[in-house]
Amino acid sequence: MIIETRAYARAAILGNPSDGYFGKTVSLIVKNFGAYIQLYQTPELVIEQQTEDSNQFKNIYKLRDQINLTGYHGGVPLVKAAIKKFCEFCDKQGITLPNKNFTVRYSSSIPRQVGLSGSSAIIIATLRALSEFYKVEIPKVTFPSLALAVETEELGITAGLQDRVIQVYEGLVYMDFDKDYLQQQGHGIYEPLDPALLPSLFIAYKTELGKVSGKVLNNIRSRYEKGDEFVINTLADIADLAEQGKQALLNGDHKLLHELMNENFDQRCKIMNISDSNKELVNVARACGASAKFTGSGGSIIGVYYGDEMLNCLVRDFKKIKARVIRPTVE
């Protein structure tokens, strides 16, 4: 029997990057793109490599381009680390796994390194496949924390819980990462919201903007840990935008949501250096009358638009800068 699992891309509506700093966020799943895992029983444990895992290149320029797109590692380290963490999770739960092996292969349609959370999708899809293969239940509320540990503890990647929460819960979720609650419970407070509350949204991205998000956020982490009051206060302000955004959604106040999303990006600019290419994405969207903020660490944006005329403006103007526009599929 072949086990097939998947996890989808995600986009933060409000609050990022405060999720890694005991903040609050609102995020939605983006089912337009996904990571897929196939797993089946075999005599030996095998992790199949994909093209991006290869160490053979046509020439030096192909090697350079591949590293620019995927970094120095492909998806195999993510799958391998997820398997290790799953095994350790079972050990802690006193679960003895049956003596059977498997072959696992992954694939992904999520654009790489543009802030749509492709890496965590591969990890979550892998954990889901292992859970099904070994008949081990991972509690939904702790699943995101396990997935996060794969990247932070095993691979040394700076990341927050937000991506993993929305990829586990799917739909639309408000998240509160209150420090005391998180440290006591091992997870945040996750409140699913009705996706029908959402206004018309678009996502635009440039694939050539790829940056490893952990590297992008490292400077903020060091400043935060050194007690930089400006960084700490700005992150708190960004977290507050998520709480206001939740109320705006519940009240059907799409105009306020529009303003809050713009404010989220403007606050982020105060504590992070934003590249000209990333600013261009935001400026093009706002010139059409839409709101715009990063979906994650940069490379793609999400915003509210109004009517087909504005959507056509977005598609036309983003095409001029070689960016693609999609309407996120949430359900």
TrEMBL record:
InterPro entries membership: GHMP_kinase_C_dom (IPR013750), GHMP_kinase_C_sf (IPR036554), GHMP_kinase_N_dom (IPR006204), Glucuronokinase-like (IPR053034), Ribosomal_Su5_D2-typ_SF (IPR020568)
Signal peptide as annotated in the record: none
Pfam families per the record? GHMP_kinases_C (PF08544), GHMP_kinases_N (PF00288)
Instruction: List, for all copies, the residue spans of the domain called GHMP kinase C-terminal.
Output: 247-305
- What are the GHMP kinase N-terminal domain coordinates in residue numbering? 78-171
Query: Which SUPFAM superfamilies would you find in this protein's record?
Result: GHMP Kinase, C-terminal domain, Ribosomal protein S5 domain 2-like
Q: State the UniProt keywords alphabetically.
A: ATP-binding, Kinase, Nucleotide-binding, Transferase
User: Which one of the record's GO molecular function terms can you name?
Assistant: kinase activity
The source's domain of life comes to Bacteria
Q: What is this protein called?
A: Mevalonate kinase
